[in-house]
Design brief:
By secondary structure, the protein is an alpha+beta fold. It has one domain: 2-Layer Sandwich (Phosphorylase Kinase, domain 1). It is built from 9 helices and 16 strands. Strands 8, 9, 12, 13, 14, 15 and 16 form a 7-stranded antiparallel β-sheet that branches. β2 and β3 (41-46) form a beta hairpin. α2 runs parallel beside α8. The longest helix has 24 residues, at 180-203. The chain starts with a helix and ends in a 6-residue tail after the last helix.
Length: 326
């Protein structure tokens, strides 16, 4: 595991944003990724920004490297299930991908009833809802309880600054976001991805609790997995060996995902509205440690951080691969 002092030093060199000159490239800066679109190619720089409740909060040391490399691991593991857009990984923070037309629905799969955001299944259940995204829920469920089967709970993809909305299959079709055939095809792929993710995580003593998948259409109209897969940003992870005891006693699960930051904010009254509480350095360092821990625990590989100022390193690596002019 990476030394805390390295994390503290890297606080001064986090990758907050980029502004590379790719000529006529279209630029799109998301909550976490800076996208440069060059005809049929998309260069995605995964920054160190962290978002929660659909709001960009701050930066975490090495977070972008963790997300990019963890997605690389999972894209390789899942390519027999889903076509993905990855072409090249020229830098620890960068993925070059085929430019796909994004599908404006996130496919969220949940294996447990939990969560603190307004779009989470537990948040709604605790407030009396017994139907969520078209699924009937029984009485008597407890927080963090395993569902009898994983549930697909889609979400709309909100524009930057707006909030996602949980929706049912019927609502997705009624809104014209997807046809019934398209929805069902992607839903089947999502469930297969989740099943494999849970199996691989379980071998490492980890529970993949829930996750979201994003898809697009490639240049041939083929459904393609895009963005990221089974990262601490898109997924919730718990430890298998402590799950039962913590659940029985009603205690919080041991988390290795960004739920730590969500919980820290929620405890201070922030759930997406109003000013964001300033996140202190010790919380940023601990959150970064958890991201790295998630990478190592889930993949079974040692995380090799590349320290220092990342912007010039990324520029040089893009020049070496011919994506950027010197």
């Amino acid at each position: 595991m990476i030394d805390a002092e390295i994390l503290k030093r890297q606080l001064k060199s986090t990758l907050e944003k980029t502004n590379f000159d790719f000529g006529k490239a279209k630029k799109y800066f998301g909550k976490v990724r800076d996208n440069y679109i060059l005809n049929d190619r998309r260069i995605m720089v995964t920054t160190d920004r962290i978002s929660a409740f659909d709001v960009v909060l701050t930066t975490l040391p090495f977070k972008g490297q963790v997300l990019n490399q963890m997605s690389q691991f999972w894209f390789e593991k899942t390519k027999h299930i889903a076509n993905n857009a990855v072409i090249d990984i020229p830098d620890p923070n960068v993925t070059v991908a085929r430019n796909c037309k994004p599908i404006m629905v996130e496919f969220v799969v949940r294996g447990y009833i939990t969560g603190v955001t307004t779009t989470s299944i537990w948040y709604n259940y605790e407030r009396g809802a017994r139907e969520f995204c078209g699924h009937k829920l029984p009485e008597g469920l407890r927080k963090d309880q395993k569902l009898t089967r994983p549930l697909l709970t889609p979400s709309t993809k909100a524009e930057k600054g707006l909030h996602d909305e949980s929706v049912s299959r019927a609502e997705v079709i009624r809104k014209g976001l997807l046809t019934a055939e398209e929805f069902d095809k992607i839903a089947e792929v999502s469930m297969k991805l989740f099943e494999l993710g849970q199996k691989i995580a379980a071998k490492q003593g980890i529970i993949l609790v829930d996750t979201k998948y994003e898809f697009g259409y490639d240049e041939n109209g083929k459904v393609t997995l895009i963005d990221e897969v089974h990262t601490p940003d898109s997924s919730r992870f718990w430890f298998s060996d402590s799950y039962e005891e913590l659940f029985k006693t009603g205690k919080e699960q041991m988390k290795i995902d960004k739920e730590y930051v969500r919980k820290w904010l929620a405890d201070r009254g922030f759930v997406g509205e109003g000013p964001v509480p300033k996140i202190p350095d010790d919380v940023r360092v601990e959150a970064a440690r958890r991201y790295i821990e998630a990478y190592e625990l889930v993949t079974g590989q040692k995380f090799r951080a590349v320290a220092g100022n990342p912007t010039e390193r990324i520029r040089q690596n893009l020049i070496k691969k011919g994506y950027l002019r010197g």
